[in-house]
């Protein structure tokens, strides 16, 4: 197997283990999805919504979602199939640099309240 080298100003690439996809976050506030084969990599889609540098990106393969953190003090959850935003969490006084998750604990169901 040989690889063509591409240059991406990336701060935290993540490889999707079940496919030949790579996610990267960069200083342009975007999360990029790349497809790969034995010879090259090419951009498939761009996820927009962060307002500052993207610091980390991670796949959650069990739920087919992407999680990203940014210097805009947010964590964003994206649908990996449609590349659309699902939810945003903010921490107004904290920068988020490290991202890790226990795959089975991420739960995105809406919470119902009873009055």
From TrEMBL:
Name this polypeptide is given: Uncharacterized protein
Q: From which source organism is this entry?
A: Asparagus officinalis
From the UniProt record, list the WD repeat ranges: 47-88
The cellular component terms of Gene Ontology attached to this UniProt record, alphabetical and capped at eight, are: COPI vesicle coat
Q: Which SUPFAM superfamilies match?
A: WD40 repeat-like
> What keywords are assigned to this protein?
Repeat, WD repeat
Q: InterPro entries in the record, alphabetically?
A: Coatomer_complex_subunit (IPR050844), WD40/YVTN_repeat-like_dom_sf (IPR015943), WD40_repeat_CS (IPR019775), WD40_repeat_dom_sf (IPR036322), WD40_rpt (IPR001680)
Checking PANTHER family in the record gives: COATOMER, COATOMER SUBUNIT ALPHA
